[in-house]
């Protein structure tokens, strides 16, 4: 089983959006028996909370299930349990390095580095633009799935 963890600051906007979108892709492409997905925060602010209403609204707009999404904080053993740990921005990646003690480890990456954008996913908690975040996270998730397919020789 290939395990993917999406990480952002609070685990209420970007990373649960990525988890839901990626899970939706896995279901549609019949890959749920080969890849699992989860999300977490680098902070402890929203442990046990549901996603932000803006995240829930945009996912509902695109008929993406939000079932089971609950905020949690990243733990040190997540490094051992996940094959891909994907931060939404540079700050998240630095926090992941700090938490895991694994600076520049290849399993830790920034989502949009896999796309032409090569930038941070803006935090809609501050920008209010959940559509922009959705569009960028969607592109990043598609690119990540392609990367996983190539690295693990998964068929389309």
From TrEMBL:
Any GO molecular function: protein tyrosine phosphatase activity
Keyword Transcription attached: no
Catalytic activity, EC: 3.1.3.48
Record keywords: Hydrolase, Protein phosphatase
Active site: 8, 14, 123
Enzyme class per UniProt: hydrolase
InterPro entries named among the record's database cross-references: LMW_PTPase, Ptyr_pPase, Ptyr_pPase_sf, Tyr_phospatase_low_mol_wt
KW Lyase (keyword) present: no
Domain Phosphotyrosine protein phosphatase I: 2-147
Catalytic activity: O-phospho-L-tyrosyl-[protein] + H2O = L-tyrosyl-[protein] + phosphate
SMART domains found in the cross-reference section: LMWPc
Pfam families assigned: LMWPc
Family: Belongs to the low molecular weight phosphotyrosine protein phosphatase family.
Protein name: protein-tyrosine-phosphatase
The species this protein was found in: Heyndrickxia shackletonii
